[in-house]
Structure formats: C-alpha cells, structure tokens
C-alpha cells in the first residue's frame, strides 16, 4: 500500500518541482536555467512518447528520432517559407508524423524483435538522408530559424519563461493522455500483445491494429516535441533524426524505468543533468558518462522510478 501511494505521489511531486522552475530561475543564471530545463522537458516529452511503444507495447523503435526530426523540420521549412504561425507548425508536424508512422508502421508492425528494430532503424535513416539532401534548407549544415513560432501573430514564445511553460504544459497533457491510454482497454490489449500475441489473437483481438495505433500516437507526440525543440534551439539539422538520438531516447526510457511513464521524465532529467555537469568537468566527459549510465541501469532495477519507490514495503 505504501509503495502504491509513493508511486502515485512521485509524478505529482515531479510535476510540481518542474512547475517551480520559473519561480526559482531568477535566483541564478535565469536564461541558462530556463534553456536547460526547457531542453529537459522537451526530451522528456520525446522519451515519454517512446515509453508507450517500449514499456507498454514491447516495441523497441530505433527510428523514433525521425518523428522528432519531422516536427523540427516542419518549423524550419515553414519558417523559411515565411509561415511563422505555431498552430500551422503543429498541424503540419503532427500530420506529417502521422503519415510517416502509418506508412512505415504498416510494414514494421508485421515484424517483431530484432527485425522490428532493424526496419525502424532503416526507415529512420532513410528520412535522415533525405534531410541531408534538402540543400534548399541547409542540407548537412541545417537551417537557423529566423525566430520562434508565433501565436495568433504575437511573439509570445520569444519569452524563455513562456516557452518553458508551453513545453511543460505539453508534457503534462501527454502524460495524462498516455496514462489514460495505459489504464484503458486499449492499453491492456497492448500489454497483452506484448506478453503473448498468439493468445490475444486466440481470444479475438488483432495485435497489429493496436500496435499500429500506439505507433501512430507515439509518432505524433514526438513530432510535438520536435516543434518545441526547434523553438528552443533556434536551429534544425539532420542530426535531430539520426539513429544516435533514437539510441539516447531508448536509454533514457530504460534508465527511468520501462512502462512507468513518469520514469521517462526522471530518465531525461538524470541523463541531461549528468551530461551537462560532466561536460563542464572535462572535455573527455563521455569516457566517464558511459560507464556511469551502464552502472545505473545494471544496479537500479526498474530504473530510477523503481529505485525511488523501492524503500516502501508493499
């Protein structure tokens, strides 16, 4: 009972702490703190969308960053063409990610295991090389945005605080949506298909449809994260959708705790803060960072979310 209560209070405390960031940021280097925390929230949103696939569906996608890149390029390309409205950016990003997910998912969902990993990696790299070929929009060098997305013609996102709150609002909305999905009949079927797809087919469910729907939802949420990422960095490049970024997102999900949803947020916070601190400590920080992450995964059973709830007895 105590462990269950702790699991319930952990997400609430996490979001309350994130909501206090704009209040506490003026006590330090405000611009740096808000920029760093906005990056954490955006990456957490992308990881949260991937947790639906891996944690609930058992589908390890190595091309998930492609959807993140679709969202970022929707902002970059439309801004370069003079369309700065954030609503248009979101609409195009979500529609393009949905089309990509349906087209690739219809093929990928007919496989599983290592075959699913490799086919999602292949589709993700196809999109990556397509982005590098877009010479009109920077090609390999990427494209610098002329400004952040506007809202009803106003530059409200020009404020770092407003952008952070917008990203946090998107994260909260996605968390509540995915939590509702996980607790629904859809979520239970998705978990059943993960554990025993043959049995699910035997009782009348078609795992393909549920997995494809989860793939679609995950892609659209990742595209929203891409829109926010482009606004936060002010720059879009093919590196956003490279397989290395997909690998980072997978590691964040595992580090935070598979299937817990809020674990993806904890994983993003730990991953980026550790990366930031170690990069200031030494230029060879990756030599230390890699073993630290491996040790965290090996000894924190259930990820950081499981570690924080371990102290309470059931």
TrEMBL record:
Transmembrane feature ranges: 36-54, 61-80, 86-109, 116-137, 157-178, 212-230, 250-273, 285-308
Protein name per Swiss-Prot or TrEMBL: Amino acid/amide ABC transporter membrane protein 2 (HAAT family)
InterPro entries recorded: ABC_transp_permease, LivM-like
Chief location bin: membrane
Gene Ontology CC terms: plasma membrane
GO molecular function: branched-chain amino acid transmembrane transporter activity
Membrane topology term: Multi-pass membrane protein
Keyword terms of this UniProt record: Cell membrane, Membrane, Transmembrane, Transmembrane helix
Domain of life the protein comes from: Bacteria
Compartments where found: Cell membrane
Source organism of this protein record: Enterovirga rhinocerotis
Database matches in Pfam families: BPD_transp_2
